[in-house]
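Title: Comparing notes on inverse folding

I've been comparing how different people in this forum approach sequence design from structure. To keep things fair, I'm posting one structure and asking everyone to reply with a full sequence. Here's the target:
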């Protein structure tokens, strides 16, 4: 398997200058070749694959940087095209120098290596970059990505080919997860985790710093200093959120063999002006992605329940579907059919787990069927009538 390890690096002035050239050349080649590709298609209705060699004859400054950086930019452009025509992503966008900058190169003939003391790393055309190697790894380095954040910090990501992670011992626990804004998740055991809302906590401070930035003269040193202040606030928010999501996801993966999670239509939720900021701050999609790859690493099973499954409206006791529960303001209610007292989020989490167990059985996944014997009672419902759902 391949895993990326990210480290902070501290390049000197000459190394920063070289990185700036790489970032600019990669961005120029990507945008120029993408535009040529679009123009050629508009004229002939055919596609082309422009290579770096075509542009090096006309733009000689492209020869000053690592050739593999341009080759990887070409691969990234073609991958973006294929993903678009496979209806997986939007049309490729042009790169901007206002965002984080990066370029990728490959490790050929041990061109990427650490010093004996682990304090320096060497990459193609750039030697002895100071690095903070805060953790070790085992495996072969396949490629490296150098990146610079908007605040001016430099990082290196090493893509390492290594052995599969050791699988966790089998657990007999299964859990359903209901995602929310006020309470980040409520599980089928009734346990809840509050949403830390890192952006909301920093929003007032961010607004003050952004207001100062807006009043400064463009191109001035003071404006650049203020821009870095704003960028650092955004970085802090992202790091806090990532730390929370990783710790929570690791805990869930360790404790449960089967994790059932609802699929949310995040894009539609972001269109609602009342909750758009909160939805972005919660980062539901990021959390689901982290759960998914960690489940693969450690031998767990993540089941996604369809976004049209009415988890909140169904009584987990009798299976009755109550249409009146659509209102989000109704946090707890009594089932009109069986009289059970239900909490909206906990009830939804239990229904998500039941639906996931049905999907597992329908797919007959042998790795998880062993633990479902103790969970059979969860998926058994009374005979359904006209006002009941399966």
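Reply #1:
Here's my take.
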């Amino acid at each position: 398997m391949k895993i990326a390890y990210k480290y902070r690096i501290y390049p000197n002035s000459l190394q920063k200058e070289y990185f700036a050239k790489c970032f600019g050349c990669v961005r120029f080649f990507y945008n120029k070749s993408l535009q040529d590709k679009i123009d050629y298609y508009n004229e002939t209705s055919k596609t082309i694959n422009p290579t770096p060699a075509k542009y090096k004859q006309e733009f000689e400054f492209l020869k000053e940087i690592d050739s593999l950086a341009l080759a990887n930019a070409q691969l990234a452009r073609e991958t973006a095209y294929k993903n678009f025509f496979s209806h997986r992503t939007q049309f490729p966008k042009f790169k901007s120098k206002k965002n984080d900058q990066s370029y990728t190169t490959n490790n050929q003939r041990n061109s990427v290596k650490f010093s004996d003391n682990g304090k320096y790393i060497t990459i193609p055309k750039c030697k002895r970059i100071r690095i903070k190697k805060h953790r070790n790894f085992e495996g072969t380095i396949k490629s490296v990505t150098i990146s610079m954040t908007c605040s001016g910090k430099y990082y290196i990501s090493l893509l390492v080919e290594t052995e599969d992670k050791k699988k966790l011992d089998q657990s007999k626990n299964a859990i359903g997860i209901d995602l929310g804004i006020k309470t980040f998740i409520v599980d089928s055991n009734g346990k809840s985790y509050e949403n830390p809302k890192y952006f909301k906590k920093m929003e007032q401070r961010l607004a003050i710093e952004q207001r100062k930035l807006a009043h400064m003269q463009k191109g001035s040193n003071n404006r650049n200093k203020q821009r870095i202040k704003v960028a650092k606030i955004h970085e802090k928010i992202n790091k806090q959120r990532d730390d929370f999501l990783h710790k929570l996801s690791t805990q869930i993966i360790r404790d449960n063999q089967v994790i059932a999670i609802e699929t949310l239509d995040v894009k539609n939720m972001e269109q609602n002006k009342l909750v758009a900021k909160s939805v972005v701050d919660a980062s539901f999609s990021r959390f689901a992605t982290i759960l998914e790859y960690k489940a693969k690493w450690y031998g767990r099973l993540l089941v996604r329940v369809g976004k049209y499954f009415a988890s909140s409206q169904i009584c987990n006791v009798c299976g009755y579907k109550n249409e009146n529960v659509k209102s989000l303001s109704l946090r707890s209610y009594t089932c009109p059919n069986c009289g059970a007292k239900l909490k909206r989020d906990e009830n939804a989490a239990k229904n998500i787990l039941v639906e996931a167990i049905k999907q597992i059985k329908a797919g007959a996944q042998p790795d998880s069927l062993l633990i479902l014997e103790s969970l059979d009672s969860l998926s058994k419902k009374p005979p359904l009538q006209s006002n009941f759902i399966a």
